Amino acid sequence: MSNYFITGIGTNIGKTIVSAILTEALEADYWKPIQAGDLEQSDSVKVENLISNTKTKIHSETYRLNQPMSPHAAAKLDNIIIDLNKITIPKTSNNLIIEGAGGLMVPLNNNELIIDLIQKLDAEVILVSQNYLGSINHTLLSIESLKVRKLKVKGVIFNGNPNMETENYILNYSGVNCLGRIDEHHQITKEIVLSYKNKFSFL
To answer: What tens digit of pLDDT does each residue of 36-47 get?
Structure first.
């Protein structure tokens, strides 16, 4: 069994969509360690509503913060400090999809970032990229940061409208694997998530 940490090159890149698709494809468990804001419609709730299999277990967040802000700032407003020692992988005999918050350098407290959490959890990283002006820079910087920490990079998933020039440059320069692509969809439904099942089941 494997633990995969889903991170992105920024915010609103499609981590939750990718997490739902991979959770469905592997019939894996899902865990979002830190949820900041939107507690009634959290990413855990979204993923649960987008999957069809009955094997997946949605594990509870370690931290549920009230404000949709950077975790360190949201935690401060809630009068708490995020402690990485309190974030431990749920016990499961299944594959586990772990969804991060924002990108790698998102602060969790005054001294630690999302990348520190990834290092602590020792999970394989799946990086979600999206094509826009500047995405080559953001993607390569993210991959470089992971390599500097000697973290395990499973590969990259491109989400949204394709740009083969951009994607090929990222893959050729970085040497990371492309795990697949997700098309632009007006609305993400259970049926769309299920349609990707066989495209990602090789993980």
So the answer is: 998 999 999 999
